[in-house]
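Why predict the complex rather than its parts? Because the way molecules touch one another can change local conformation, and only a joint prediction can capture that. The input here totals 1706 residues.
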Amino acid sequence: MGERIGKVMAQVAMVMNLDKCIGCHTCSVTCKQAWTNRPGVEYVWFNNVETRPGQGYPRRHEDQERWQGGWKRTAAGRLKPRAGGRLKKLATIFANPKMPSIQDYYEPWTYDYEHLVSAPLGDDIPGARPRSLISGDPMQITWSANWDDDLAGGEELGSQDPIVQKIGDKVKFQYEQSFMFYLPRICEHCLNPSCVASCPSGAMYKRAEDGIVLVDQDKCRGWRMCVTGCPYKKVYFNHKTGKAEKCTLCYPRIEVGMPTVCSETCVGRLRYLGVVLYDVERVGKAAAVKEEQDLYEAQLDVFLDPDDPDVQAAARRDGIPERWLESAQRSPILMLAKRFRLALPLHPEYRTMPMVWYIPPLSPVVDALSETGHDGEDAGNLFAAVDTLRIPIEYLAELFTAGDPEPVKAVLNRLAAMRAYMRRINLGEPADESIAEAVGLAGTDIEQMYRLLALAKYDDRY
Amino acid sequence: MAQHRAAASERSAGDLLLATGLFLTRSESTEDKRVVFKEGGREGDVFYRDRWSHDKVVRSTHGVNCTGSCSWNVYVKDGIITWETQATDYPSVGPDRPEYEPRGCPRGAAFSWYTYSPTRVRYPYGRGVLVEMYREAKARLGDPVAAWAEVTTDPQKRRRYQSARGKGGLVRIGWDEAVEIAAAAHVHTIGAYGPDRIAGFSPIPAMSQVSHGVGARFVNLLGGSMLSFYDWYADLPVASPQVFGDQTDVPESGDWWDAAYLVLWGSNVPVTRTPDAHWMAEARYRGQKVVTVAPDYNDAAKFADEWLAPHPGTDGALAMAMGHVILKEHFVDERTEAFDAYVRKYTDLPFLVELVERDGDLVPGKFLRRDALPGEEPHAEWKPVFIDARTGEARAPHGTLGHRWDEERPGNWNLDLEGAEPLLTCYEAGGETRAIALPRFDGDHEGSAYGGAADDSAADVPEVGRSLRGVPVRTVGGRLVTTVFDLLLAQYGVARPGLPGRWPSGYDDASEPCTPAWSESITSVKADRTIRIAREFAATARDSGGRAMIVLGAGTNQWFHGDTMYRAFLTLLLLTGCQGRNGGGWAHYVGQEKCRTQTGWAAYASAMDWTRPARFMAATPYWYLHTDQWRYDTYKADALTSATGPGRLAGAHTADLVAASARMGWMPSYPTFNRNPLLIAQEAREAGLPPADYVARELASGDLRFACEDPDAPENWPRVLTVWRANLFGSSAKGDEYFLKHLLGTQNSVQGEEAGPGDRPTGVVWHGQAPQGKLDLLLSLDFRMTSTTLLSDIVLPAATWYEKHDLSTTDMHPFVHAFSPAIDPPWQARTDFEAFQALARRFSELAEDHLGTATDLVAAPHQHDTPGELAQPGGTAPDWKAAGVPPVPGRTAPAILSVERDYPAVAAKMNALGPLAETKGLPVKGVSFTPDAEIGWLAQRNGTSTEAPARGRPLIDTDVKACEMILALSGTSNGRLASQGFERLAVRVGTDFDELIHGSAERRVVFADTQHGPTPVGASPEWSGKEAHDRRYSPFTINLEHDKPWHTLTGRMHFYMDHDWMHEFGEALPVYRPPLNMHRLFGEPEIGPTGEKAVAVRYLTPHSKWSIHSEYQDNLLMLTLSRGGPNIWMSPHDAEAIGAEDNDWVEAVNRNGVVAARLVVSHRMPRGTVYMYHAQERMVDVPKTETTGKRGGIHNSLTRLLVKPTHLIGGYAQFSYAFNYIGPTGNQRDEVTVVRKRTTEVQY
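Output of the joint prediction:
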């Protein structure tokens, strides 16, 4: 490294392997049941899962032209909240137009279930009709937290996906060219959180010990600037208490060594939690690099190598407990993000330095390749196949690398290499080191990746 | 410069503010002032800490339908269930593979919503008008039974309450009164009509064995019928008994990991096996290739290396074409040693089949059997033969069914070839050949059934009927024979030089079955992909030692001809040596019901410890007759039979065939006779004849008739039905509207006409007016309001899964684990156990005066895995009635068995383990356990009964004690019994079983173990596979590794089925049968636009992501995550045709009923097919329909039962009956419907 190491801080971060996500929404339900099944937050899903291509929740949340979330780099290379600085916020505090309405989330409802039990003898079978949880009136259901699940709504809805609009006809809404993948989302617990910067009351803060971003329920005055400021739309307004609420990264669990609810209940076994150390003094600069496509690398550079004796010394200097240092050394996050370069940040171009990273989905790969007449089982062909994925690389690049396809390709090649490499071992053939080398890894690296991604034992995930 | 100025001005405003703030608070900050460090101020955090805190965590699970069997932690705070999360402490399955943690899906995670939901049934309810009339009659008559008799037999009163069913008007009543009415109904029915007029329905016992078992035990002690569910749900794969002689023995999901090639065929694993899907996702990382076959781009296709999308229901053609490639490339052009050795030893391919003449053609007939050869041998008619290549002589090898039941000479039922080399083919240079006629059905498509290019180009519709192809032949015992292998090659169109007949010219010849090009013309799957995948599949199987697996789902199983599809799939696995191997073989995951602790559960539920046999009934023929769906069948057997068949079923209506199957003792049939069986027993006694002789005489004279020959006569109706752990009328009832109309006698929307005179049965009585309202009492137990509870006469409030003790197992994982109550049942809810106890107690009291003790005559079908399966040698259809000869009970008719019913003692017997457990033993799959030591243990553990006639017997009067009994009496959880069973099996088989006998004796699981966590079980003769801490369960590994035969005619896995009826329907060999042509059979419109703004579409009902299994459609969380109500998925093309957009209200109508739903338009759907996901009920957000003005129906309002006659076969080897083992499926996927956009505003 060579550079002076600034103040060392620890962050509890998450990686989700989208290549394993089955889109089951168990995470959403367990999170909802544990945290937000109460009045005022009926419409709130700290954790939600989106089908992509799709509009997500709230609707088109990635449309920053409209919602003005995240940071903007000024011509002078400084960052300011896209929605405007503090003065502007103070000026507009009573009228915030840049906020999704309840209809952009969805109008929560229930049904007249009681009628089923209590209906008097009539001339037809009783039914329970929907009723708004906001107004209490009967309603027709036209949107939900997951309305376009599994490509529901097809082109009519999918064409409104901001990424689809950006990359144009690379996405086809046709039977033969169908593709989809799932994107579970929680608060990113950013290193450079624009929600915190947006709060006029100083009610939002990032915990020093683990980086969890929280709303102080006592201090919150309900200005809702955080809702606008967060580009991921992961701060919500409790319409009953009049305060903001958000994913807490299950701190009451994290504090006692338990994984978050969404992680532990993830039946696809795709979530990893771990500690990363970073140099807090480098964050501002990294978040402000000129080119959006350099943000991914810049963010990786902020992470400190916990095996580096200088880092260890600096960490001890800054009061990082020994156990946290050990955790950082065993961190699956560091391995997946930095060592194997499999996990990528979500929308780095928002410049918030998100701390929930994703391994992009590989599949289906041979399908596309075999159309060209190649043998998909051949390791050499696998790499060629990545270019002909059903899921357009451009789509993934817009999500994870500000549009740069190369890092995405590199990840998918490594995943493909792992399959090819392990298939030989599976069939009792000798390991082929050249497969690993082709993606810049050693066979032992592949075996470690395999251990983490395939075996994915509980103790290795968290 | 301008830029610089702008930056400076920003700095002046923002930084000034920041700097001021920092100064005021004196906080530490980073140099760039981006971060400010503060101390304290965390008081606001306390809200979430409080929210997380709880008083206790209780382990439980969800107990119905779902095969997940996941262990859940239920959180309780202040005595209130708050939420649940999955347990993660499953025992490790090995350091080299993923684990089972966490198991559970969003449906399970949303379950606790029900506990306090507004749809919770909190109190007992009765139908208001019924309760009113009952109270009045009881007050007047002074007796509950007399009151029930009056209300149900007075036509006006009867009509009044029956026609009120489902229309609201339920009133709260007390437990005592509810139980009294139900008990009186049972007593009255037994006395007035017979115990077999009582039925119980409760599915999938494996997932809550005591909750199921307690009600079944009650019904069985009365002599009522427990209705099957597996076949009824169309989850039962009939090919399984046909091919394996075993029902759904499949690998645990952990064994997917071992597969090197995985085909997901009609199985959307992420949705339907959510907690298991990770094995598939992860196994890809060790190089497993995943191929998904599905008509839509579904959740599983997302993971697939290849997605094949054959037109719905044509999967069989694709599999046949893959079989063509494998046969040609691995058995004809080249010989793959491993495959060759496997099929010779483990399949019937080398066995000889006689060729016989029929209508001028030579056709395959029966297996050549030992009795065709010179010399005597016991059971020679049950010993098929092959030619030993060493000697050229035909011989019957060990291991046939004739060896299995030869009690005199045990030790010969094995697969040891004793050096013999079974000759696979009769083909030899210059050898004799013959042309034979083989059936083909591939021309029977609906004309415009499918969109897509392939169909449009398929101009040459092949002739329906037969192919003429040659086989090499030999003459053995004076008969012309060939091998099953030679027949298979002919059937698959794999040519060899010198054989006569028409053969395809190559893979690209679409004119002849079963080439890849032929498949393409049917399925639209490109021939080159079919070839490539077949090659990969076989090569992987070869290179990995059989580790290629096909995961099968409802998408392929639930078709009318799902069994033929399955046989085509199994062919791929058997030819490549994958079955019986870890990581290989079939993996059928559709509503499986694996009670790992099989024997213990069966003993408990069937009450076989007190009385045998139970009246277990195949539900499909039961509902087919009793809901009068048979009256709407407008086609005859001829519509389905083969041009190459014997043709003896010409003109037969399906109801005729159902009746014949009952007469011949193939299928069970309850109510059995048109008289009360208690009365018949009395008559026999008076006549001084043994009951079987008396019944035979009465039947022969025509004085006694089978009830199924006149299902509409009032004396033959079912009278009392109890439904628990189930939602029959809102979910599984195929032909739901017919249930409402004829069984319940209430409002319905049946749209079609009954069969005209020419289409009616000849052997089943036709009443001019079909009855409406057969059932006297519909009793349900549930914790939520469903269509079933709304339609019920009495509703009892049940405890949820988090409020009771029970046991759960599944085939998906190797553990048994417990339900434990997190809270007591709230309000007036009771566990199923307590409810049935109350019912039994009150029943017994009322029975004192009204019933006493009686002899009951039970008609039992020929039973599989007993010598009963030797009833009808040669697989004929000995219909004594048609032949005009007297029946022979136990041979040509069901066995007639006397059973003593001590009705006042029912409660005492329910609560104690009876003596037959040890005196007669506990049978399971042809082996018997003697649980003498266990009875002693249970007596000490549970205490003993003080009540006659159970005095001194171990008590099972609590749910926990019943759990303990189940665990003690199964070999999987009690190694002593497993060891004992293996020892006995070894005697019969005669091979080395030492590993199994000695490997398990120490294992003993008690209830407390299962409460602590999921506990592994072990190998037992109850199942065909081995399992241990280092061995994943895979079926038939015992067969392969210990030379134990399959439970079939030859003792091998069967490609060939020589029963008469299999020939009739052209299914002796695997064959492609297209989806039913509903236009031709029922006059439904052909698929495609049907005029303005309407389209006729294939109507499929796959399992939903947002309900089903452990969860139901009414759950608010699930509705919120989906679209809030019933919907139909449609392709953009079809939506355009009806002028509808996403979320528009539509109406779907066919002859069976009417559905109102919203449209989901998606390009992931193929044209011409819609999905209405399973178990969408009529209760949540369902408006009145435009068609009827009444509330729309459930997803099964558009389906109906279609009985496939070959599923009725019995009395013959592996075709013999067993409960949930074989029987007609309630298939529903061949259906079509017309969908149109709603034009008027919705009304509720």
